[in-house]
Automatic annotation (TrEMBL):
NCBIfam families: maleylpyruvate isomerase family mycothiol-dependent enzyme. This is Maleylpyruvate isomerase family mycothiol-dependent enzyme. It comes from Streptomyces javensis. GO terms for molecular function: isomerase activity. Residues 12-129 form the Mycothiol-dependent maleylpyruvate isomerase metal-binding domain. Pfam families: MDMPI_C, MDMPI_N. Residues 143-236 form the MDMPI C-terminal domain. It comes from the Bacteria. SUPFAM superfamilies: DinB/YfiT-like putative metalloenzymes. InterPro entries: DinB/YfiT-like, Maleyloyr_isom, MDMPI_C-term_domain, MDMPI_metal-binding. Keywords: Isomerase.
Amino acid sequence: MENAELIEIVDREGRLLADAAAEAGVDAPVPTCPDWRVRDLLSHIGRVHGWAARFVAEGLTEPVRPTVEGAPDDAELVSWYREVHGRLVDVLTHADPEVKCFTFLPSESPLAFWVRRQAHETAIHRIDAESARGGGFSPFTPEFAADGVDELLAGFHSLDRSRVRTDTPRTLRVRTTDQGAVWTMRLSQDAPRTERHGEGAADCEFSGPAGDLYLALWNRLPISALTTEGDEKLAELWREHSGI
């Protein structure tokens, strides 16, 4: 997906997040993140937005931790989040396409990395805000949802910190039913290797519309929302160990 399109998604998803948070109230529990209330969600995503914006705006080439500064009182928390989110959108919109800065997943450019990362960070946490508000979730396009699955499988779960591992080699396939995207994950005692194809046999396959795959694999819907064929132990492995 192009940077401009993803920046529009960052903008839209943040606005939806703020609106849902305001409707829910900052003390509402967040069912998709059981240890959180809306105030925790807003504080987290606001700090992440500020952290991401610093890398791009300041051209930071070494990792830094998110700034630990107190979020405002409950009465001002939603408006604070709107301001922080607006600054992020502005930084991404006006950034030099050739900016050099720190990233932590492979990407065609640092700006492309941060635009994509913040689009999915905001989108998944918008789901959290809507779960606190109640009612249905706003939809994603299949293309964007498939991109989020790709970032998760080929990006985050390629890192050493992934706990999706097996004692003996196993193969997990993930297939969209509405978008044409397929991934094959090679599981072992090492970090998973993800290939963007559906060739060869698989021990287990998850399939479903891209939007359902996106939310289930990011643990915002139960894995049972997907069609699972093959070894149920791999579905159990995902439920228990895939959290990022």
